[in-house]
Amino acid sequence: MTTVRLVAVSGNVTSPSRTRVLTGHIVQAVESRAAVETDVIELSEIGPLLGSALTRDALSPTAAAAVSSIESADILVVASPVYRASYTGLFKHLFDFVGYDALAGVPVILAATGGSERHSLAIDHQLRPLFAFFRAYSVPTGVYATETDFEGYTLRNQAIRDRIDAAALEAVRLAGQRLPNLQQVRAVA
After folding, report:
1. What is the distance between the alpha carbons of residues 150 and 114, in angstroms, rounded to a whole number?
2. Does 187 map to a domain?
3. Which of 3, 102, 131, 141 yields a CA-CA distance of 20 to 30 A from 72?
């Protein structure tokens, strides 16, 4: 049986965050479908280490390890809050250090949080093009949640949970095509 290297990037610069909660739900959904080794990267923790680096060689050991972890993913989960119609600047700066070929063929679950539904297209107009550049496979189902989908920091919207399940299933199926020995725990949504 092949263990999947699941790497998740929670792109909020503050903690606690609804983006982190959403990321956690997506990670759990993938973990329920395949044997995984999970690494969750919190931008709120490594962000200060990224801002002063202009080249990969200038990254701190912690930030460099985060980039290496992203590059080693068999499945990648990325989530960002939407600020001014896009992902955060530090989120983009993190991916500026990722090698061009590192994510080729890797399934990516795209997720975002925002204050209103008006920002939901950031998944298709901002995140998909970024990961298309890396030649990663963005799964068809994006996951977008607004503040009204949460009660405090608890995800309450069943429709969002259903989208999470669909995206997780899509990612595991794509990973199974790259990793023929991947044993799926549950193959139904």
Report:
1. 11
2. no
3. 141
CA distances from 97 to 23, 55, 92, 108 (A): 21, 7, 9, 17
How is residue 138 written in tokens?
Answer: 């963005």
Chain-centre distance of CA 65, in angstroms?
Answer: 17
The answer to whether residue 38 sits within a structural domain is: yes
| Structure confidence at residue 189 as a pLDDT band (50, 70, 90) | very low
Q: State how many domains the chain has.
A: 1
> What band does 184 get if pLDDT is binned at 50, 70 and 90?
low
Residue 42 lies in a domain: yes
d(CA 113, CA 81): 5
Q: In this structure, are strands 150-151 and 154-155 parallel, antiparallel, or unpaired?
A: antiparallel
Whether 184 maps to a domain, the answer reads: no
CATH of the domain at 139: 3.40.50.360
Please report the pLDDT score of residue 172 as a whole number. 95
CB 81 within 8 A of CB 112: yes
Q: At 40, which amino acid appears?
A: V
